[in-house]
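Entry type: protein chain
Record version: 2
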Amino acid sequence: MKKLLLLLVFLAFNVHGAVNGRYVRIENPTAPNMAWQEIEVFSGSRNMVLNKPKLFSGTGYTPERPVADFEGKRLVDGNKDTAQRGPDLRNGDNCNPWLEIDLGEPQSIDKIILYGSQYPNKLYLDKGHRLVSILDKDRKIVWIEKFDYYEQKKYVKGLFEFSPSSGQQNQLSGMLIPINTAGWVPMPWLLNIADEKAPSDAAKRMDAFKHRNAPENIKNLADELFNLLEPIPELAEARKLYADGKYAAALDAWKIYWFAKMKKVNQHSGYDAGAISYGTQGDDLFNGIRVTITSHSIGASRFTPGRINWVDLPKEPVELRSALADTSYLALVNVFGRELLKSYSNNGKSEYLRQWSGIMDDWCMNFFKDSDASEYNVKDLFVMIPANHWTVLMEELSDIAGKRPEFINEFPAATLARIQITCLDQYGPAY
């Protein structure tokens, strides 16, 4: 009986003991910037990183300069004054700047202490989300914790102290984080995902969406498109098919001509002025989750192509500001689904392209109808910006076709026609 009691005591003190790991990571998944004053990693009473900047890597403020040569030195120099400004880490214009400490071999980690930079001053674009994690020698997560950098009542004077426990497990435990990876964080785990808020006429929209490619609707689409096209020799085949009543085939012939023309004229003259993105955004969109990141806020909600609630503006002035900014972005072609299209370009999965096509069809069918019915002007009326987004989309479609020749056949001609017609109708000859 005495041996059993001793065993139980031993287990009580060791099941939830210190965590064994080789790598320690600190990152900001929802903004392109992050700053710290000092970082400490303890095994027992020993700070394993003091004056050891060569252990550090990550997204330094200057990409060509190794973190160990600058940021690392300042992060382990013993200066713990959180009122002072610590070194910045950035990930270009994308989210998830990260910092990683390689301890060389697995170590028993009892405590991690992070010291804030000019605390509690707010960093530009920063929403306050932070992650600290420990990885094993194979770079699998053995412990991870998320926290709010601006939760002052919990983290007094910018002191963030963590005592990792081997008993703490969650859905990310065992996940592999490849070396030099940014933007890996699953947003559904990080954020609270709001339930889908469908428009009042959702059933009617879904019925129209379901039948959008029915023969009668394809005919109407072809009628509208071919009325806009110039009678050039290159479209002779497409026009013959159209005249013969073979409307779907006529759209496909026009699509093939369109890609051939874009291959010749694609000069990559558009500039990227889209919304803030993150690495797993395409996967989230594929799974029906949209994450909106603005300069001031972040939100996540579920959606279903065909009944997307494009214009849903609150009455409260503070919330209205961010909602208007987001809705005006949605007026720009492909802002909603762009990362999904990028994911298809990388993985070649046709189901990602189908999801993107559904989003774009919904946008063409409903966004401007909703915006016209709104009491607010949510259209982006500055002609250059919509025209630029059109240019970027056309160039990206052309680039994907060059990378994946099968894309031209997989790409729905009806979706391309809808986008063409909608943009010309809403933004005029600038396109």
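Comment: The mean pLDDT is 90.
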